[in-house]
Amino acid sequence: MDKFMEAAIEEANKGLKEGGIPIGSVLVHNNQIIGRGHNKRIQKGSVVLHGEMDALESAGRQPATVYRECVLYTTLSPCPMCTGAILLYQIPKVIVGENITFKGQEDLLREKGVEVDVLQESECVDLMKSFIKASPGLWNEDIGEID
Amino acid sequence: MDKFMEAAIEEANKGLKEGGIPIGSVLVHNNQIIGRGHNKRIQKGSVVLHGEMDALESAGRQPATVYRECVLYTTLSPCPMCTGAILLYQIPKVIVGENITFKGQEDLLREKGVEVDVLQESECVDLMKSFIKASPGLWNEDIGEID
Fold it and tell me: Is Magnesium set as a keyword in this record (chains A, B) (predicted)?
């Protein structure tokens, strides 16, 4: 498997072990991970730290030129908020673990010129399927849906 | 002036006094402020805590039904990331202080059924004009533009 998607899955598994929502992400620049993170809704009571946002936050303040050379890896298709963050920072490429359990704003990303590759990794699908089955209320909360 | 926009401007001024980017926001539910915040890029080294995001974060974990009855006040037109957060949580109404110094994704919000009112408050315009003039580099960083 792609080593960066492996790192994103590691993050998702970290989240799961913490009792959190198992979605992970890494931000890659020049073939190096510069930010990594996972969903922190449960752990920090955060409504903004989805996996992708946590990875961006952990990378710290980067020049605009750096974001424009980055690839963002995420285990799950990005929701509207994370999509917006990708567009704000003009990240040109997003690698998605899977979009079977949730399909985010991939169309908007592509429309704005972002390259989006979906790997459909069974490990990512299994993580989300198990989580959603065990904790449907938490999952609905995370994507703004009424439980 | 609208008392909730006044509260958002108070937040923007708090940010300015802290040496930060002067954009503030409040989240209002049933005519009560349930979250308030301001841009924390400088103060926390945060790349995700724009004013609107900080207000959402300060409101904590709310049920989906609450967000859908909220009004979000922000001193400045919402960038793509904050627009995405508004869409994720299906906040139906956004009151914008001004969109002269920066125009965000108001069209996308309206297209998705969000009511967007722009007040063009001179106090909001003045805050941003002074800040952008004094710190163009920080401002460009905040909106992902190359300095």
Answer: no
0.95 exceeded by pTM: yes
How many CA atoms lie less than 13 Å away from B114 in the CB half-sphere?
30
> Quick one: pLDDT at residue B4?
98
pLDDT < 70 positions in chain A = none
Contacts of B48 in chain A (CB under 8 A): 48-49, 53, 56-57, 85
CA distances from B11 to A18, A82, B52 (A): 34, 25, 11
Q: B110-115 long-range CB contacts below 8 Å, 24 or more apart?
A: B112/B87, B114/B86, B114/B87
Give chain B positions within 8 Å (CB) of A81.
81, 84-85, 87-88
Per the annotation, the verdict on B57 as an active-site residue is no
Closest CA to A29 of A4, A57, A52, A2: A4
The helix-helix angle for B51-59 and B80-88 (nearest 10°) equals 30
**Model pLDDT for residues B77-92, shown as the tens digit of each residue:** 999 999 999 999 999 9
- Looking at residue A77, its amino acid is S
- Say yes or no to pLDDT of B65 above 90: yes
For A48, the closest chain B residue by CA position comes to: B57
What SS3 state is found at B145? coil
> Which residue among B11, B52, B98, B121 is the active-site one?
B52
pLDDT tens track for A62-88 = 999 999 999 999 999 999 999 999 999
First to last CA, chain B: 35
A140 contacts chain B (CB < 8 A): yes
* Residue reference for tokens 């009151």: B95
In sequence order, the 6+-apart residues with CB closer than 8 A to the CB of B46 are: A57, B40
